[in-house]
Design a protein that fits this description.
The structure holds two protein chains of two kinds. Chain A is α+β, with helices and mostly antiparallel strands. Chain A has helices at about 25-35, 90-95, 105-120, 125-130, 145-155, 155-165; strands at about 5-10, 15-20, 50-55, 60, 75. A five-stranded mixed beta sheet of chain A has the order 2-1-5-3-4, sandwiched between helices. In chain A, a hairpin with a 2-residue loop joins strand 3 (about 50-55) and strand 4. In chain A, helix 2 (about 90-95) crosses helix 5. The longest helix of chain A has 14 residues, at about 105-120. By secondary structure, chain B is of the alpha+beta class. Chain B has three domains: about 5-50, Uridine Diphospho-n-acetylenolpyruvylglucosamine Reductase, domain 2; about 55-170, Uridine Diphospho-n-acetylenolpyruvylglucosamine Reductase, domain 3; about 175-285, CO dehydrogenase flavoprotein, C-terminal domain (Enolase-like, domain 1, 2-Layer Sandwich). Chain B contains eleven helices and 14 strands. Chain B has helices spanning about 10-20, 35-40, 75-80, 85-90, 90-100, 100-105, 110-115, 125-130, 230, 240-255, 265-285, and strands spanning about 5, 25-30, 50, 60-65, 65-70, 135-140, 140-145, 150-155, 155, 165-170, 175-185, 195-205, 210-220, 225. In chain B, strand 12 (about 195-205) and strand 13 (about 210-220) form a beta hairpin. The chains are: A alpha+beta, B alpha+beta. At the A-B interface, strand 4, helix 3 and helix 4 of A face helix 2 and helix 6 of B.
């Protein structure tokens, strides 16, 4: 068996080390080694987006990343979205808009939407749908999800614009 | 998933040496969006994955008056986020915007798409239309292969054991040129091309005649095809529906589609003609100066 590797990351703001085999995906390590089970496994082949996490500032399907590739990386998972002050605006919008039923796809949608709004605080409906093309939901029919992202963008525009200025997007 | 070793060399020489040691049981890992899934389902059984993303040569992204150099590991989002590529090599940006969703585009590279050598790969028709040349390095040194000669069958290509793709080199674009890639899929996004067509045209200064054209087809044969005769036939022809329809008819001659879950051979043949016309018209519009929106970082 291939030797296990020590991988050092910054995970949700904390320096985190883990031991993994080269064949383990980032998704497996998050869930099975680190007990961060908020990130869900859907298709495991990059179609459904349930396992979306933010790796070095970009959304990725964690089922298609080897955990060893995360050496030195900054990672953000659904566990890092809410703060001590409460839920993130996008989480509130999903709750208020009933943008979920079974909930398996929700962490992926939240990660992808939150990242997207940080890049594009005033999106059109078309841009939202294009951005979420890599996330599948088998319950809601998508409309409530899209409306919730629109609501988050309108209700919390100051929040996203401020975020945007701080992160230097446009 | 199958057990394998992993290394992430930082020099090309080290990667070639590693590949040589493991011979055909090593695979190069760039974005991993095809490779990791293929290992997981058992289609590939490598003993060593060589992560090439830390090698400087494979991360080159250089656009100058000499042309474009695109490192084999550069992910799609950097391609369509590069305003020089969006304006001058628009077909390539078109391809990169529709390969998978945003999450896939964060990782998947054009070089990986080429090396995976799928018949329906969305970037390969654009590479062919834009005259890309693959720079390959291996234990015997370097060599160059035109992209239209790179794929040899579904999932197969000219790379020998121990060789890897370093970068794609594109000639400089000339005045009055434009390019486009489009595909047919039954969904709006996130699907595999039923047919894909790349086109690149150069017009005269009056923009009423073709100086030259290159047309390429995806998903209608075991490899992406360069429809050379169809493109060459446009040289000197007026820019109108008639000449474009003739080019589409000529391109269909080389298509050898199969019937599968995504479409029948007959349907694919029909769509090939339709898409060649549309891709040419869009390339012409760009050659005439139609603006292509570039949003950095999207």
């Amino acid at each position: 068996m291939a030797k296990k590797r020590v991988v050092t990351t910054t995970l949700n703001g904390n320096q985190t080390e883990f031991l993994c085999e080269p064949r383990q995906t980032l998704l497996e390590v998050l869930r099975d080694n680190l007990d961060l089970t908020g990130t869900k496994e859907g298709c495991s082949n990059g179609n459904c987006g349930a396992c979306t996490v933010i790796l070095n500032g970009r959304p990725v399907d964690s089922c298609l990343v080897l955990a060893v590739e995360a050496e030195g990386a900054t990672l953000r998972t659904i566990e890092g979205v809410a703060t001590a002050a409460g839920l993130d605006p996008i989480q509130k919008a999903f709750l208020e808009g009933a943008a979920l039923q079974c909930g398996i796809c929700t962490p992926g949608f939240i990660m992808q939407s939150e990242w997207f709004l940080s890049q594009n605080p005033k999106p059109t409906e078309d841009e939202i749908r294009f951005n979420l093309a890599g996330n599948l939901c088998r319950c809601t029919g998508y409309d409530k999800i899209v409306r919730s992202v629109q609501d988050a963008a309108t209700t919390w525009q100051d929040h996203y614009m401020k975020n945007c200025h701080e992160k230097g997007c446009h | 998933m199958r057990d394998f070793e992993y290394e992430a060399p930082i020099t090309l020489a080290a990667a070639i040496e590693l590949a040589g040691k493991h011979n055909s049981s090593a695979r190069m890992l760039a974005g991993g969006t095809d490779l990791i899934d293929q290992v997981r389902v058992g289609r590939l059984a490598p003993d060593m994955l060589i992560d090439v993303k830390k090698i400087a040569e494979l991360n080159v992204l250089e656009h100058s008056s000499f042309g474009l150099r695109l490192g084999a590991a550069v992910p799609c989002y950097q391609v369509y986020g590069h305003c020089g590529i969006v304006s001058d090599y628009a077909a390539l940006a078109d391809s990169c915007r529709i390969i998978g969703g945003v999450q896939i585009q964060s990782r998947a590279s054009v070089g990986g798409n080429l090396c995976n050598s799928g018949p329906a790969a969305d970037s390969i028709p654009s590479l062919i239309a834009l005259e890309a040349v693959a720079l390959i390095a291996g234990p015997k040194g370097r060599r160059e292969v035109a992209v239209e000669d790179f794929c040899t069958g579904p999932g197969k290509n000219v790379l020998a054991a121990g060789e890897l793709l370093v970068e794609l080199k594109f000639p400089a674009r000339v005045a009055n040129s434009g390019s486009h890639y489009r595909r047919f899929i039954p969904r709006n996004e996130m699907d595999i091309a039923v047919v894909g067509v790349g086109a690149s045209v150069v017009l005269n200064d009056a923009k009423d005649k073709f100086v030259s054209a290159r047309i390429s087809l995806g998903a209608v044969a075991p490899t992406p095809l360069f429809a050379k005769a169809a493109g060459d036939g446009l040289a000197g022809q007026p820019v109108n529906d008639d000449s474009i329809a003739k080019a589409a008819a000529a391109a269909k001659v080389i298509a050898k589609p199969i019937t599968d879950m995504r479409g029948t051979a007959e349907f694919r043949m029909h769509i090939t003609g339709v898409l060649v016309e549309r891709a040419l018209k869009a390339a012409v519009a760009r050659a005439k100066g139609e603006h292509v929106d570039c949003k950095v970082g999207h």
